[in-house]
């Protein structure tokens, strides 16, 4: 059978103990196919790392895209547990998973073609990449998409920094940090040329702007976490219903030359009145720096203290930053109902 025919094959996935089932393409994974069919399949990273998308295979067979995925353990294999984000069906299947309405997609994720149209440097190691889409995409500020990059095994998750204007977005902007020896970021920075096309699959992610909450917002971004926080600030600025909401944007970098985002905030109407930018660096040695020296969670705590309990909090960045923020918020007894993040892996 030729490859096109095999890839267009569909398999029926039945959820054990429920009346629900859905069709999954031969080349799609169970998690994303379920979400495309409006089934609330729990997940977070979509990258094989967090382990939140596990299911038990009761009947049928799957092909695992990335057997070395850190979220898939030896014990999982013994118990026929698989990662939804890494499993492609090989025939009809029956699976057991605990659906949770929190994960019901707001916008149906879809696969589109993206053409790289421009790139610009943001800092010495962060670049912004713009893709024009073959088909419009709806998403909420703070969400991410999966990019299939040439010569890279698996897809990489990158958050959009722009917002949807009109009914859907015709372009997506990503702000990506160059990771030393990183396959995906290297492909974006050094291999993909303007005019080249890739597959983009999205939107995904739960750390999106809650438009119905009218509390002031705190955005904490570190390193590669710039894009989703910029998208959230832009989303608030563009939403008439959120005019009473102030946004405090805090960026954490290692050294002063890592600090970025101020110009993007300054471009928003009411910068300095409703939109505020502050930065912290952990290592200011030898550089001119008149901002906060230390970590971004320390800056947030010193600026807002117990006032954090009255804010809606979004954060994105490296895992160590995320852990430090969560610990600080726990110490301040901030309810996790008002804290939103998708861990970066
Ligand atoms: C929800 C989310 C949003 C993110 N948003 C951004 C962003 O806006 N900007 C940014 O710079 N970074 C972002 N990242 C991080 C980004 O996805 C990459 O992890 C990072 O760019 C390093 O990738 P790399 O390929 O360069 O490095 P590598 O070290 O080559 O790859 C590391 C990443 O790729 C995954 N991976 C490795 N091999 C495979 C494989 N065979 N199949 C599938 N996955 C594999 C790993 O789980 C890990 O996530 C985000 C990550 C997540 C989870
Ligand atoms: S391991 Fe599948 S969503 Fe994180």
Automatic annotation (TrEMBL):
Name of the protein: Ferredoxin--NAD(P)(+) reductase CarAd
Domain FAD-binding FR-type stretches: 109-210
Source species of the chain: Paraburkholderia fynbosensis
Keywords: 2Fe-2S, Iron, Iron-sulfur, Metal-binding, Oxidoreductase
Domain 2Fe-2S ferredoxin-type span(s) in chain numbering: 11-101
InterPro entries xrefs: 2Fe-2S_ferredoxin-like_sf (IPR036010), 2Fe-2S_ferredoxin-type (IPR001041), 2Fe2S_fd_BS (IPR006058), Beta-grasp_dom_sf (IPR012675), Cbr1-like_FAD-bd_dom (IPR008333), FAD-bd_FR_type (IPR017927), FNR_nucleotide-bd (IPR039261), MRET (IPR050415)
EC number: 1.18.1.2
A molecular-function term among this protein's GO annotations: 2 iron, 2 sulfur cluster binding
Top-rank lineage group of the source organism: Bacteria
Cofactors that this protein relies on: FAD
Top-level EC class: oxidoreductase
Cross-referenced Gene3D superfamilies: 3.10.20.30, Nucleotide-binding domain of ferredoxin-NADP reductase (FNR) module (3.40.50.80), Translation factors (2.40.30.10)
């Amino acid at each position: 059978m030729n490859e096109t025919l095999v890839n267009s094959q569909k398999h029926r996935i039945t959820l054990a103990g429920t009346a629900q089932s859905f069709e999954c393409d031969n080349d799609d994974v169970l998690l994303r196919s379920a979400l495309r069919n409006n089934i609330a399949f729990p997940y977070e990273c979509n990258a094989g790392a967090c382990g939140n998308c596990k299911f038990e295979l009761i009947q049928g067979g799957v092909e695992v895209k990335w057997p070395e995925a850190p979220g898939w353990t030896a014990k999982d294999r013994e118990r026929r547990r698989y990662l939804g984000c890494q499993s492609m069906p090989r025939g009809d299947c029956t699976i057991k998973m605990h659906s949770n309405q929190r994960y019901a997609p707001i916008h149906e994720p879809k696969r589109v073609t993206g053409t790289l149209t421009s790139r610009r440097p943001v800092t010495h190691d962060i670049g912004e990449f713009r893709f024009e889409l073959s088909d419009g995409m709806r998403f909420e500020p703070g969400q991410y998409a999966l990019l299939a990059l040439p010569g890279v095994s698996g897809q990489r998750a990158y958050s959009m920094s722009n917002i949807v204007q009109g009914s859907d977005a015709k372009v997506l902007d990503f702000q990506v940090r160059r990771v030393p020896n990183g396959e995906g970021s290297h492909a974006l920075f050094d291999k993909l040329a303007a005019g080249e096309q890739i597959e983009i699959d999205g939107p995904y992610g739960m750390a999106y702007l809650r438009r119905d909450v009218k509390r002031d917002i705190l955005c904490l971004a570190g390193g590669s976490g710039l894009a989703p926080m910029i998208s959230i600030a832009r989303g608030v600025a563009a939403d008439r219903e959120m005019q009473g909401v102030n946004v405090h944007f805090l960026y954490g970098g290692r050294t002063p030359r890592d600090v970025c985002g101020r110009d993007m905030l300054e471009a928003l109407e009411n910068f300095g009145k409703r939109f505020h930018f502050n930065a912290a660096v952990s290592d200011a040695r030898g550089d001119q720096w008149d901002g906060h020296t230390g970590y971004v969670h320390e800056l947030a705590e010193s600026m807002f203290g117990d006032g954090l309990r009255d804010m809606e909090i979004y954060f994105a960045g490296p895992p160590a930053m995320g852990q430090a923020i969560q610990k600080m918020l726990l110490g301040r007894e901030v309810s996790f109902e008002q804290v939103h993040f998708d861990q970066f892996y």
